[in-house]
Amino acid sequence: MLDFSVTLVITIFNIAFLCLILRLILWKPVTKFMAERAKRVQDSIDKSEKDKADAQTLLTQYADKLKAVETEANAIILKAKHQAEVEAEKIIASGRASVEELTVNTRKQLEAEQKAAMAAFRKEAAALVVDAAGRLIGREIKSEDNQQYAGLLISEAEKDRYV
């Protein structure tokens, strides 16, 4: 059976005494240390959650800014394309105007040269007609009078040819 001796009572007394002393001496510091540690851990968790929330906010802000920058960049690109198209149209219009002006000037110059050549041809033809008429008649004809008649003759011949 169980033997209840004095050593058992002393052992129980020693254990109770040690528990009381340990509780008085160590319990408060250990619980204080554990509470402080739990508080630090909770503060770290809270701080990390706050940092995570701040990071998420910054991420959202940066994403919004990035979208705004992309939108602005696209707007700038579209504006630059539009300006380039407008500038190209201006250059093309300017080139067409220059070509038209050059064509008109060239036509005027050709017409002037053609008129000058026709006038020279008429003069030479009139002189040849007067000379030929003079040879046929056998006498010298006044070139001033007959050149006028020869010019009229050539003009009538040209009218008949174009009609």
Please give a handful of descriptors for the protein shown.
mainly alpha, 2 helices, 93% helix, 0% strand
Could you characterize the architecture of this molecule?
The chain is mainly alpha-helical and 163 residues long. The chain has a domain at 50-162. Helix content is 93%, strand content 0%. It has two helices and no strands. The protein has helices spanning 6-137, 143-162. Helix 1 (6-137) crosses helix 2 (143-162). The mean pLDDT is 85.
- Uncertain segments of ≥5 residues (pLDDT<50)? none
Roughly how many Å apart are the termini?
Answer: 160 Å
Mean pLDDT: 85
The number of distinct β-strands equals 0
Percent strand: under 5%
Instruction: Report the major sheet.
Output: none
Binned, the helix content reads over 70%
Order of helices and strands: HH
Shape, principal axes of CA atoms: rod-shaped
Quick take:
The chain has helices at residues 6-137, 143-162.
Helix and strand topology:
Elements: H1 6-137, H2 143-162
Helix pairs in contact: 1-2
